[in-house]
Amino acid sequence: MPRRPGRFPADPALFTPLPGVDAPAGQGAPDSRMWPARLPAEGLACPLHGTAGCAVPDPGELPALLDGPGPAGGPAPSWGTGTGAAVAEAELLHGLTAVLACLIREAFRHEGRVTAVEGLLRTLARWAGEVNSAGRLPYGQLRLGAQYAQVAGRLRMERGQIGVAMAWFGHGLRWADAVQDASARATLLSDMCTLVRLDGDPSLMLGYAQGIGAVDARRRWMATLSDLYQARGHALSGDAAACRRHISLARRGFARLGQQDHLEAPWMAGAEGAMRVDSAIGGALRDLAVATGDRVAARRAIDATARSRAQVPPQMRGARLLLTLRLADSWACAGDPGAAVALASEVLPEAVRSRESMVTAELRGLHSRLTGPWADLPEVRAYRERLLDAGE
């Protein structure tokens, strides 16, 4: 059970204006088929009781949260089944956590509903501000707010909206720090690593990556994440020795993760964890090959990325698309444009249609490699023609 760091109100500056404005469009109720039975779900722990296994309200007992009025202030907001009956604060927080888990699951199948996430987040922040003004620390609201802010930031990052994404991540970090939520701080910093990498700043990425490891040196999953992101940062800078050192540390750390690590970071467990580690290592080695021209690194990137791609579950279509493009780029970096074109051609129409910034970045990098010294090869010319056709 998480420790509550006191019951005194938080700094009112935590509730400064948030990005965007309230908008009713796109806030339909989540798909009840994706409603979790218990928390944690999708890596979201209960904001009050951590990983204790809290049950969540049945979706049939709840109003359409995304279409109706948000929770009012006070310790027991009016939030029931249309009768006006108040429910316990814990039940409301459980329900809002379940809604976020639903929205995350929906995002695997179609474009994430950023309007829905941000609308609920602003309502949650207003509720937290009202509880705070009443003289009580909005502990659960801030913990859950940090989770909502992280998802909102990720959805904005996928759209290439770097500034808005960073604003949400910044709010999430402040809320996590206010309630001493170490896990949220570490995962928010990891998302900030990805964001600044997309923005082309390896030095800033290294700073955030080192910050992940500094959150809590006793948690092995945080140290492993830190090493993975440091490997990527050093790769972008062309520091082969440092990149390889952190890859070795990350592999060693991943192999030593224990039950508590898997409870706090379930995405680092089992096949999913192996998929994510191989993906990160493959990305680092590909980046190193781009920065240094090292074809040995490129071949190692092929191995790691192929392993990761083979473990992607069917519902994670976006991840499979991204890894296919990265694998193709790794083949190009290894000096085999034919293999690169063959792989990329499988997903070219989908890649061109994608609005996700990371997919766009992978496609752009692959294109720059293929249109260099191999521009006149027949298979590369055919690739360019297919790319133009897919964009029409």
Keywords:
392 residues, mainly alpha, 15 helices, XRE family transcriptional regulator
Description:
There is one protein chain. By secondary structure, this protein is an all-alpha fold. Among the domains are: 37-42 and 91-180, no CATH class; 312-391. 64% of the residues lie in helices and 0% in strands. The chain has 15 helices and no strands. It has helices at 89-109, 114-133, 139-158, 162-178, 182-198, 202-215, 220-237, 240-255, 259-264, 270-292, 295-310, 317-333, 337-353, 357-370, 378-391. Helix 3 (139-158) packs antiparallel against helix 4 (162-178), helix 4 (162-178) runs antiparallel to helix 5 (182-198) and helix 5 packs parallel to helix 7 (220-237). The longest helix has 23 residues, at 270-292. It is globular and about 70 Å long. Residues 64-86 have low confidence and may be disordered.
In sequence order, what are the helices and strands, one letter per element? HHHHHHHHHHHHHHH
Distance, first to last CA: 54 Å
Residue windows where pLDDT falls under 50 for at least 5 positions: 64-86
Overall radius of gyration = 22 Å
Q: What percentage of amino acids are in beta strands?
A: under 5%
Count of helical regions: 15
User: Please, what is the average pLDDT?
Assistant: 88
Principal-axis shape: globular
User: Largest beta sheet, briefly?
Assistant: none
Helix content: 55-70%
- Tally of strands: 0
Q: Classify the oligomer.
A: single chain
- Structural class from helices and strands? mainly alpha
